[in-house]
Amino acid sequence: MIHPSYAELSKKINDNAEGEQKVINSRYSVCIATAKRARQIIDGAEPLVDDIKCQKPLSIAVQELYEGKVNILPDETVEK
Prior knowledge:
Strand content: under 5%
Largest sheet: none
Oligomer: single chain
Number of helices: 3
Mean pLDDT: 80
Order of helices and strands: HHH
Radius of gyration: 12 Å
Structural class: mainly alpha
């Protein structure tokens, strides 16, 4: 079983988001967000959580998102 589940993770992310618009609308959005953060960790970024339950970069990224340590910006606010 995945912990937290997609439903729990997306609800937590949307609850922590600023404004009324949902940041996460699908499972795909959760996958992309965690993959991007995991890639940053693989490339040398320091984990933002203190109590790391698993040393795998993807697990750390999921834990960071769940704890609200990483914010996901809506597409309109991302600079190119």
